[in-house]
TrEMBL record, chain A:
Residues 10-249 form the ABC transporter domain. GO terms for molecular function: ATP binding; ATP hydrolysis activity. It comes from the Bacteria. This is Urea transport system ATP-binding protein. The lineage of its organism: Bacteria, Pseudomonadati, Pseudomonadota, Alphaproteobacteria, Rhodobacterales. Keywords: ATP-binding, Nucleotide-binding, Transport. InterPro entries: AAA+_ATPase (IPR003593), ABC_AA/LPS_Transport (IPR051120), ABC_transporter-like_ATP-bd (IPR003439), ABC_transptr_urea_ATP-bd_UrtD (IPR017781), BCA_ABC_TP_C (IPR032823), P-loop_NTPase (IPR027417). Pfam families: ABC_tran (PF00005), BCA_ABC_TP_C (PF12399).
Automatic annotation (TrEMBL), chain B:
The chain crosses the membrane at residues 12-40, 52-71, 77-97, 158-178, 210-229, 241-263, 275-296. Keywords: Amino-acid transport, Cell membrane, Membrane, Transmembrane, Transmembrane helix, Transport. It is a multi-pass membrane protein. This is Amino acid/amide ABC transporter membrane protein 1, HAAT family. One of its GO terms (biological process) is amino acid transport. The keyword Transmembrane helix applies.
From TrEMBL, chain C:
CDD domains: TM_PBP1_LivM_like (cd06581). The chain crosses the membrane at residues 14-32, 44-66, 122-145, 152-171, 201-220, 241-268, 288-312, 324-349. Keywords: Cell membrane, Membrane, Transmembrane, Transmembrane helix. The lineage of its organism: Bacteria, Pseudomonadati, Pseudomonadota, Alphaproteobacteria, Rhodobacterales. NCBIfam families: urea_trans_UrtC. It comes from the Bacteria. One of its GO terms (molecular function) is branched-chain amino acid transmembrane transporter activity. Its main location: membrane. It is a multi-pass membrane protein. This is Amino acid/amide ABC transporter membrane protein 2, HAAT family. It is found in: Cell membrane. One of its GO terms (cellular component) is plasma membrane. InterPro entries: ABC_transp_permease, ABC_transptr_urea_perm_UrtC, LivM-like.
UniProtKB/TrEMBL annotation, chain D:
Keywords: Signal. This is Amino acid/amide ABC transporter substrate-binding protein, HAAT family. Pfam families: Peripla_BP_5 (PF13433). Residues 1-37 form the signal peptide. InterPro entries: ABC_urea-bd_UrtA, Leu_Ile_Val-bd, Peripla_BP_I, TAT_signal. PANTHER family: ALIPHATIC AMIDASE EXPRESSION-REGULATING PROTEIN, PTHR47628. GO terms for biological process: amino acid transport.
């Protein structure tokens, strides 16, 4: 199914990675459209996080191709992939604990990314306005001067999402964004995601089926590094192969 | 450059040079094993490794004096007693240092480096105050000195054979402990996942201490063996530290097999180059090649590819 | 929403710089005789290295155990120039080949090696003092950081470089002066650097250069790059996935540290009057790390105090109790790691600054957590 | 050698003086010609502001007490302190007791320079006994020349230096090398030589002189190999194999420090029994001091070329060895450099008394031609090039770690720090 559809934002084809012979991701292909919210689910060890790692360049693929807006990502460095418009949030929140929320966002601001640029970067009005705007989106406008270390777990997750948003990526990849959140925080996060998806594509890894049903446009089920099933939430839920994998063992 | 020699001479020389390489290999293995256990399994940089070796050498010196004074009849055998005592002394010091210092620093590997460097300075001064600034002469039992004539041209030094046997023995012992004993299982479990190991009831604190102690003990045995081939003085331990670290890093820190492979390749390279070049240039070239390879392949020779 | 950390100097920074300036430019020269002042000048040359280490290690988490290499390269560049100037045909008339440095003559060299030639020019030398260490650092940095070697591995490999360079310098004595180093340096463009007056002038030149480096360091720390370094130290992957080429930042800061060290080395040569491989090896390299650690690995001003204090203690302790010096130094290493991980600057920020601010009733940032104590 | 101006009692300690045990008492008993301070007003004998009072004169001792060189330099410090004590016991110099300020060079050359400056500039010492390695001497040399100090340097060294501010009480290279090579050629019939050394200036320069001498001045002799190892190197099996391959008559070894121990142990272990003298091992870097670390059993049969051995059989030396052991312990050994260090204070004393002044310039002038009959090594004399006329001796190492003297030159060998034809 080699579809050369220029409408796809991301085309993953034949993606394979092996660790000492063990194929964590095996000949995987899938396609993401603009403004789609794709959720990847699957049992533990299915290779979900590895797929994100491969796309964003954190792990080098053994074979295959990942095309983003017709650019081959596999040949690019992580920072180049980011500049191409792909953002990545990690499973455990990774924010700069020693810096304030403001500084966390500022470091992610898409300007001054070269050595010289960073030396001469000035905190001008545009920067401040943009940071304020993002902070409002992620519910942290009152905590700008707080050190990130003092935020709650959920707030750190939001902050990390905010750090991605400020770069305005076209594709956002989120690894378990609601893990460890309270019910109230989950609701707020779902609302946040829905707003985010409005003008970009998102790939989300999630276990919480209720949350998945809440946000997903399409769902991909991974099993042993391969696509087991793909389609709408409803279709996937009724796929006997999926039921077999989740319940059979 | 070979035209001056007959074939049989050349053959003999290459045989002996190969043997020299094997001795150097054994020396490297002995130096590096203790460090590989500590660095590879615990991630701790022990800059005082050389001083733990020298402690073993001083213990050997004291033992030889004791035997000479009290048990001259069995002086030839003192070396074995000395090695056991060296293991105990260095190991005990290792346990103490782990308790007093290292255990507070597990999360700061670069800081252990500085702290153990400080420790090495202190140990040097202690040795100097106790044993004097001069090197001490350790008398070696007669049966260990001299060489075995294999053919009329090839002779192999007995102490070289002894070092090789010892290196093999200790490698096997370490291998057995790491992969066949419950301690080894615990050590490996901790190095994979400390939190989990803790959770399933492994006494991580004690295992760490024991690991550090055993690593230091092995260093002590190495130091004891080195009295046969090198000098015993307060600062002699410093001579070994760079070589030792490079052997371990080059091998791939987490792999004992890698340490042995790297000791083998470095020793052979150095030994071959020493034959064709001046000793100094051989050393520089060996170090440069090792560092060069490490730049291209920073994970070292042997390493498992792991999912992050 | 103006935040204090975005300004180049906070009130506290200004105070810190001012106090240090008063100590270095006024108190020390007035309190010390020419001999002691020269000694402190020598200590200050180590402070260049320590400041570089604060940037690399304290801020960037890159611990180099090979800073002696850069210190030595800078020092050797300067020494080569001075040696050429001292080796006039007239001064070296007794040699078989007059006009070349004495150690070359002893090693049967009959002509100056080509790579010594450019060091006839002071201008070239002044550039080389910075450029040679930087090029070295660049090569090491590109090779290592591009391949994401860091932490302990980086420390050990830089240490190996220190060992290699030492063996090379000693082994190639015809070109380098070997274990003796390059000695008997006399004049700089005809100006005798051995007189007491010259040494005083050099002290102030040295101090001025140090302050220039401190200002550069402060600028870097307070720029976005400075915050990025801290971010990288703690969450390298996050920085990378925020679109930064992490390696290039590490290379930059490593090269900057090397440049500082090179200047320090050159000033060392000028003030002490020779350069030798003992300044290049593993031991001095690690000692330079301890200067930085004692001062506080996060504080650029602390690094200066650290270098002064440790060396002053070394000189005075070894004058009165030579046997105890190693014990003291060893204990210092351990204490600074286990008890005062943030060194003098940490002690100041935790214990002294709060009292001071209580005394003056002012709010001078005493509430800052020790982990990110800025300069002083 | 007939025109010796210095009265024996001034030039050195008598044998009986040591036997008396208490040094203080012997001063008045056995030094009848001791000079009295009041005969030499301080203002007259010290016109340049040195640390000289009406009853004391201060000198400096500058060696490494810590670091890698402490091993070697300890003996020199002990010898210098012994000499100072003996001189004081005889009434001092110009009626003034010697006091000393000891500084630690810490095996670090910049520290040596720093301490030298301190001694000369701050302490104004009248002379300095010190340094061991060439590197430390090179580091302090400009300091001494600039501040016009006087250094007594005890180590045998590579030569190529002749500073007006240094008296070299050890041998320069030719004094140590040439006679020994001739001896091994003439008495042992040695024709082929393998030169080996630690990689730094002294072994390299010495081997260069050895090579020139072998190739240009010894008929039918050749150098079959030359090799250098970094300081501190401990693995010599490769070079031992090379030596086997080349089958030299003589291994000419200038290995130093910890490497020494490794080299000789491995040589023995490789089956090269030095007592069989095939090949002969000839060294210029192993004194009795070093043998203690190497072990007599590993050194037995090797030849060393020095100017002094502890076993030297003359009255001066017997008294010196006894005094040294009385002061520093029975099981101490004395090597070539230790003896040379012992000469320093005595040579300086002789020069000061000859000049009748502590002024550096006058002492320097007076120093030339000073003779010391009481030197443990025998009679020595200061050459105008600031080195000593000394004999060259060859000793054979015994199991107990002492050398048995097997050869000595008939006459004193002239020091020649810039040897023609050897460069």
């Amino acid at each position: 199914m080699n579809m050369q559809n220029p409408n796809f934002l991301l085309m993953v084809e034949g993606l394979t990675v092996s660790f000492d012979g063990f194929k964590a991701v095996n000949d995987l292909s899938f396609y993401v459209e603009p403004n789609e919210c794709r959720v990847i689910i699957g049992p533990n060890g299915a290779g979900k996080t590895t797929v994100l790692d491969l796309i964003c360049g954190r792990t080098k693929a053994t074979a295959g191709s990942v095309k983003f807006k017709d650019k081959e990502l596999l040949a690019m460095r992580e920072d180049q992939i980011v500049h191409a418009g792909v953002g990545r949030k990690f499973q455990t929140p990774s924010v700069y604990e020693d810096l304030t929320v403001f500084e966390n966002l500022e470091l992610s601001y898409p300007k001054g990314h070269s050595v010289f640029g960073a030396l001469t970067f000035r905190r001008d009005a545009n920067v401040k306005a943009r940071i304020k705007e993002i902070a409002e989106t992620i519910f942290l406008e009152d905590l700008l001067d707080e050190k990130a270390a003092y935020l709650s777990h959920g707030q750190k997750q939001w902050l990390e999402i905010g750090m991605l948003l400020i770069q305005d990526p076209e594709l956002l990849m989120l690894d378990e964004p609601v893990a460890g959140m309270s019910v109230a925080e989950r609701k707020k996060t779902a609302e946040l995601l829905r707003r985010i998806v409005e003008d970009r594509s998102v790939i989300v890894i999630e276990h919480d089926m209720g949350f998945v049903a809440d946000i997903a446009t399409r769902v991909t089920v991974l099993h042993q590094g391969k696509t087991l099933s793909e389609g709408s939430m409803e279709r996937v839920q009724n796929d006997p192969k999926v039921i077999e994998v989740y319940l059979g063992h | 450059m070979f035209s001056d020699y007959s074939m049989s001479e050349l053959g003999a020389i290459f045989a002996m040079q190969g043997f020299a390489g094997l001795i150097l290999f054994s020396v490297f293995v002995l130096m590096a094993l203790g460090l590989a256990i500590i660095f590879g399994q615990m991630g701790v940089i022990n800059m005082a490794h050389g001083e733990f070796m020298i402690l073993g050498a001083y213990v050997t010196y004291l033992t030889s004096n004791l035997f000479a004074a009290w048990l001259p009849g069995v002086f030839g055998m003192y070396f074995f007693v000395a090695m056991i005592l060296a293991f105990i002394a260095s190991g005990a010091l290792g346990l103490f240092i782990e308790w007093a210092m290292i255990r507070h620093l597990y999360k700061r590997p670069l800081d252990t480096l500085l702290a153990t460097w400080g420790l090495s300075l202190i140990l040097q001064q202690v040795y100097r105050s106790v044993f004097g600034a001069r090197e001490v002469g350790v008398s070696i039992p007669d049966w260990m000195m001299g060489s075995l004539p294999v053919t009329d041209m090839i002779e192999v030094p007995i102490n070289g054979i002894f070092v090789m046997v010892l290196a093999t023995g200790i490698s096997l012992a370490v291998y057995y402990m790491m992969f066949r004993s419950s301690w080894g299982l615990q050590v490996r479990a901790i190095s994979q996942n400390r939190v989990m190991a803790d959770a399933v009831g492994i006494n991580t604190a004690w295992t760490d201490r024991l690991t550090f102690g055993i690593g230091c003990g092995v260093a002590g045995v190495a130091g004891s063996a080195f009295t046969m081939i090198g000098s015993t003085g307060p600062t002699a331990g410093q001579l070994y530290i760079v070589d030792t670290f490079l052997v371990v890093v080059f091998g791939g820190a987490a792999s004992l097999l890698g340490t042995i492979a790297s000791a083998f390749s470095i020793s052979q390279a150095q030994s071959i180059m020493e034959f064709f070049l001046s000793g100094s240039m051989a050393k520089v070239l060996t170090l440069l090649v090792v560092v060069g390879i490490l730049m291209i392949r920073p994970q070292g020779l042997f390493t498992l590819k792991l999912r992050k | 929403m103006e935040r204090s950390s975005n300004r180049l100097f906070t009130t506290q920074d200004i105070l810190g710089f001012a106090v240090l300036a008063v100590i270095i430019f006024i108190v020390l020269p007035m309190a010390l005789d020419s001999f002691r002042l020269n000694l402190f000048g020598k200590y200050l040359t180590y402070a260049f290295v320590a400041v570089g280490l604060v940037l690399c290690w304290g801020a960037g988490g890159i611990l180099s155990l090979g800073q002696g290499v850069f210190f030595g390269l800078g020092g050797y560049c300067m020494a080569m120039f001075l040696k050429l100037e001292a080796s006039t045909p007239k001064n070296t008339a007794i040699q078989s080949t007059p006009g070349i440095p004495d150690f070359m003559d002893w090693n049967q060299l009959t002509a100056l090696p080509w790579w010594w030639e450019p060091f006839n020019s002071l201008f070239f030398t002044m550039i080389a003092v910075v450029a040679v260490p930087v090029v070295f650092a660049l090569i090491i940095g590109v090779a290592m950081f591009r391949r994401r070697v860091g932490g302990v591995y980086f420390a050990i490999i830089t240490q190996a470089f220190a060992a290699i360079l030492t063996i090379l310098i000693i082994g190639q004595q015809g070109f380098t002066g070997g274990v003796n180093g390059i000695t008997d340096l006399r004049t700089l463009h005809g100006w005798d650097i051995r007189t007491n007056d010259a040494k005083e002038v050099l002290y102030f030149v040295n101090a001025g250069l140090l302050f220039a480096c401190l200002l550069i360091a402060q600028f870097v720390r307070k720029s976005k790059l400075g915050r990025l370094l801290i971010a990288m130290r703690d969450q390298e992957d996050r920085v990378r996935f925020s679109g930064y080429d992490v390696a290039s930042f590490k290379i930059f800061i490593f090269c900057l540290g090397a440049a500082f060290a090179g200047i320090g080395g050159a000033m060392f040569t000028l003030q002490v009057g020779f350069m030798s491989p003992t300044l290049v090896g593993i031991v001095p390299s690690i000692e330079m790390v301890i200067f930085c650690a004692v001062g506080g690995r996060l504080s650029i001003l602390g690094a200066v105090y650290g270098a002064l204090l440790v060396n002053w203690a070394k000189t005075s302790l070894s004058e009165s109790f030579p046997e105890l010096w190693l014990l003291g130094l060893g204990g210092l290493f351990i204490a600074v790691v286990m008890v005062f991980p943030n060194g003098l600057a940490g002690v100041y920020a935790e214990h002294i600054a709060p009292r001071l601010s209580g005394l003056f009733g002012g709010k001078t940032g005493a509430a800052k957590s020790p982990k990110e104590t800025p300069a002083e | 050698m007939t025109d010796r101006k210095i009265p024996k009692s001034l030039a050195g300690p008598s044998r009986r003086a040591f036997m008396a045990g208490s040094a203080a008492m012997t001063a008045s008993l056995f030094a009848p010609k001791a000079l009295f301070a009041q005969d030499y007003p301080t203002a007259q004998i010290n016109t340049t502001g040195l640390a000289v009072t009406d009853d004391t004169v201060t000198i400096g001792i500058l060696h490494s007490v810590t670091g890698t060189m402490a091993i070697s330099e300890t003996g020199s410090v002990q010898a210098e302190k012994l000499a100072i004590e003996q001189i004081n016991a005889q009434g001092g110099i110009l009626g003034r007791k010697i006091e000393y300020i000891q500084e630690d060079g810490a095996s670090d050359w910049p520290t040596f320079a720093e301490k030298a400056r301190k001694l000369l500039v701050n302490d104004k010492v009248a002379s300095v006994m010190g340094c061991w390695t060439s590197a430390s001497r090179k580091a302090v040399l400009p300091v001494f020349e600039q501040n016009n100090g006087m250094l007594y340097y005890p180590t045998f060294y590579e030569g190529l230096e002749e500073s007006p501010n240094v008296i070299y009480t050890g041998q320069e290279a030719t004094q140590q090398i040439i006679a020994g090579l001739n001896w091994v050629n003439e008495t042992k019939g040695a024709k082929s030589f393998y030169l080996l050394g630690s990689d730094y200036i002294w072994p390299r320069t010495s081997n260069k002189i050895a090579r020139k001498h072998i190739e240009n001045f010894m008929d039918g002799c050749e150098v079959v190999g030359e090799d250098y190892y970094p300081l501190g190197h401990t693995q010599f099996n490769s070079v031992i194999n090379k030596i086997r391959l080349k089958k030299p008559d003589v291994i000419y070894a200038i290995v130093v420090g910890g490497s020494n121990v490794a080299f000789y142990k491995q040589l023995k272990a490789a089956g090269i029994d030095m007592t069989k003298e095939a090949p002969i091992v000839l060294t210029i870097s192993v004194t009795e001091d070093e043998i203690r670390g190497i072990g007599g059993e590993n050194m037995e049969g090797a030849y060393a070329c020095m100017k002094y051995f502890q076993s030297l059989d003359n009255d001066n030396n017997i008294a010196f060895v006894k005094a040294f052991k009385d002061m520093w312990g029975e099981d101490i050994v004395i090597g070539d450099v230790t003896q040379a260090a012992y000469l320093g204070p005595w040579l300086w004393k002789a020069a000061v008394e000859k000049a009748g002044s502590f002024d550096i310039d006058k002492v320097r002038e007076a120093q030339i031609g000073v003779e010391l009959e009481t030197a443990p090594e025998g009679y020595v004399k200061v050459h105008e090039n600031h080195h000593l006329w000394s004999k060259t001796r060859v000793g054979r190492a015994k199991l107990d770690g002492q050398y048995e003297v097997v050869f000595e030159t008939a006459d004193l060998v002239e020091p020649n720090p810039f040897p023609e034809g050897y460069q």
